[in-house]
């Protein structure tokens, strides 16, 4: 969730502030194969941490970045929902539980898995971001709010929707896996 002011690349530090256009509405995302599973990681935490689902306890069904492993909560299916939006679900919880955003209360803006429906908080637009990464926003909140991750505290590494900006926690890499859903 740090600003993208400088970034070390292959031993060189380059200044990148001001190079990014904050509005990526016109950009389009790659096409996803609806039966394939993907891993999601951020520029902020890097490829060694993948979006996973908490299994048990008070945070059950909440996504969180965790060390990459072979667990089914790190395998995400990205299915078309129409009009340029996508639904995200995991191999772990199945296609009936979708990535959603809490819309009220103290957890407002935090991501969670919830039963799939036609809720606008479950419809995700995936657009090109900076440096080859992608941005995720919901139909409910529009393109000015992007999926980011907490940095520190009790919610460390938990995704939350925040105002889009030059933050590496809002830049996502979506990597195809060798796993496929067999409907």
Question: Judging from the principal axes of the Cα atoms, what is the shape?
Answer: globular
Q: How much strand?
A: 35-45%
Number of domains: 1
Number of strands: 14
For the largest sheet, list the strands in their spatial order: 9-8-7-6-3-14
Instruction: State the separation between the terminal residues, measured CA to CA.
Output: 37 Å
Number of helix segments? 0
Describe this protein's structure:
This protein has 183 residues and is mainly beta. The chain has a single domain, classed as Trefoil (Trefoil (Acidic Fibroblast Growth Factor, subunit A)). It is 0% helix and 44% strand. The protein is built from no helices and 14 strands. Strands 9-8-7-6-3-14 form a six-stranded antiparallel sheet, with no helix packed on it. Strands 1-2 form a two-stranded antiparallel sheet. Strand 7 and strand 8 form a beta hairpin. The protein is globular and about 35 Å long. InterPro entries: Ricin_B-like_lectins, Ricin_B_lectin. This is Ricin B lectin domain-containing protein. It holds the Pfam family Ricin_B_lectin. Keywords: Signal. It comes from Pseudooceanicola sediminis.
